[in-house]
Amino acid sequence: MASVVVVGCGAVGSVLAVALSRGGVDVAVVTRGQSASRVIVEGLGEASIPVYTWSDAHRISPELVLYATKAYDLRAAVEESLRAGWRPGSVVSLQNGLGSLELLESRFPGRALGGIVLFGSTRLGHCRSRLVNRGEVLLGWRSANEEARRACHFLSDALSRGGLSTHCIGGRLDEWRWLKLAVNAAINPVTVLAWSRNRVVVEDPFARELAEALAEEVGRVAEAHGIKLPRNPVEEALRVARVTGDNCSSMIQDISRGKRTEIDYISGVVAEEAWRHGVSAPLNWFAYRAVRLLEKWLAGRRSPCET
Ligand code: KPL
């Protein structure tokens, strides 16, 4: 299988593009930024990869598209790709939180895969990032046709060859998505409140207590939603905070760049699902509102990863 496009060249998109290229895949990148010809990831490598802007996207015709935009930019990216005339056999959502896979499933029925990113990476510039730790990538589906299932295995082999340990977990995606939701709901808002790298969650007793309680709440909401988590959410949140300890969460990176965070898709979704199921999740409700507030008042403040 050839002709893969990664949409987005930030902390996640750049890492995936370089790993695919190192894995021997014919890959291109499309961004809203400028065109380029190299993608650089400290800690993984650099590669000659054509980087197109949307105005040139009609010149390519990918069979497989990995959407690595922010969750709130996904809808516009999908519309741009349809306008460019792309008719991919399979698409992959790589956003944090819930809602993005659902969007791809509605636009590309039977063709959508979901990806769960467990590595820590920091955006350093346009198509330039640092892979802080090589955590895993999990790929899977909720409802996918044969071609998308094959794409799942193709991508996991290629990314693994390229240096990112990746597994195709088949139809078990939802339980792992909820587990990652618990991880993000625990780590991201707490790192923003403490304005510190991920390791604060394991090193500071107050941060740890708060993160544990947030993850525990997500576990209760998941259960009410009928999801059986594959691992204990509290232990998993602490494990990920430990292995990505030197990274700054994507939420701090967003705020320091004056950008919107993905809090709506993380704590916001947890609070909403809790309400829908009649379960109490006051800490996620608080985390959602606290980050919305900090997003506004800390915008542009230097991230601890820049110092
Ligand atoms: O997903 C992440 C994020 O920052 O959004 C983790 C895995 C916590 C890495 O920082």
Secondary-structure map:
Blueprint: E1 4-7, H1 13-22, E2 27-31, E3 36-42, E4 45-53, E5 64-67, H2 74-83, E6 90-93, H3 100-107, E7 112-117, E8 120-125, E9 128-133, E10 137-140, H4 146-161, E11 166-170, H5 173-194, H6 200-203, H7 205-224, H8 233-243, H9 250-256, H10 267-277, H11 282-297
Helix pairs in contact: 1-4, 5-7, 5-8, 5-11, 7-8, 10-11
Bound molecules: ketopantoate.
* Uncertain parts: none
CATH class of the largest domain: Alpha Beta
Annotation, overall tally of beta strands: 11
Number of helices: 11
Q: How far apart lie the N and C ends?
A: 42 Å
The average pLDDT score comes to 96
Summarize the amount of helix as a percent range: 40-55%
CATH topology of the largest domain: Rossmann fold
Element order: H for helix, E for strand: EHEEEEHEHEEEEHEHHHHHHH
What is the CATH-assigned architecture of the largest domain?
3-Layer(aba) Sandwich
Total number of distinct structural domains: 2
Query: Superfamily at the CATH H level of the largest domain?
Result: NAD(P)-binding Rossmann-like Domain
Strand order of the largest sheet: 8-9-3-4-2-1-5-6-7-10-11
Shape: globular
Question: What quaternary form is this?
Answer: single chain
